[in-house]
Automatic annotation (TrEMBL):
It comes from the Bacteria. Signal peptide: none annotated. Belongs to the universal stress protein A family. It comes from Luteimicrobium xylanilyticum. This is Universal stress protein. Residues 5-117 form the UspA domain. InterPro entries: Rossmann-like_a/b/a_fold, Universal_stress_UspA, UspA. The lineage of its organism: Bacteria, Bacillati, Actinomycetota, Actinomycetes, Micrococcales.
Length: 120
């Protein structure tokens, strides 16, 4: 059962990808990549995984429009072991509420979710 991660060209996305590659290698399983807003960044993400010796592939096509919903859908459709997400620092007021996308993934994912903290 694979590890699922979203591909985003943000610092959070980069940290999530690195953690997902490490997790897939540790579990000796495949990595499923879910493109963000576009498929930009997918090819470099595939290369990062393959350089680490991890079998990586794109998630099956989804009719979901929201990124969080596509991640959950990919986890369901691939019977994922874990979904990896990156978190970003929030303002003092924003700390009261976890980002809506992260909250949806944490609550709706059919498997454990590994949340990667931002760098200090």
């Amino acid at each position: 059962m694979p590890v699922v991660v979203g591909v985003l060209s943000t610092p959070e996305g980069t940290r999530a990808l690195a953690a997902a590659v490490t997790e897939a290698a540790r579990r000796s399983t495949a990595l499923v990549l879910v493109p963000g807003r576009s498929e930009e960044g997918v090819q470099p993400a595939l290369e990062v995984a393959r350089e680490a010796g991890v079998d990586a592939r794109l998630a099956p096509a989804s009719e979901e429009s929201e990124f969080a919903a596509r991640l959950v859908d990919a986890a369901e459709r691939t019977a994922a072991d874990v979904v990896v997400i990156g978190l970003r620092r929030r303002s003092p007021v924003g700390k009261l509420i976890l980002g809506a996308g992260a909250q949806r993934i944490l609550l709706d994912a059919p498997c454990p979710v590994l949340a990667v903290k931002p760098e200090s």
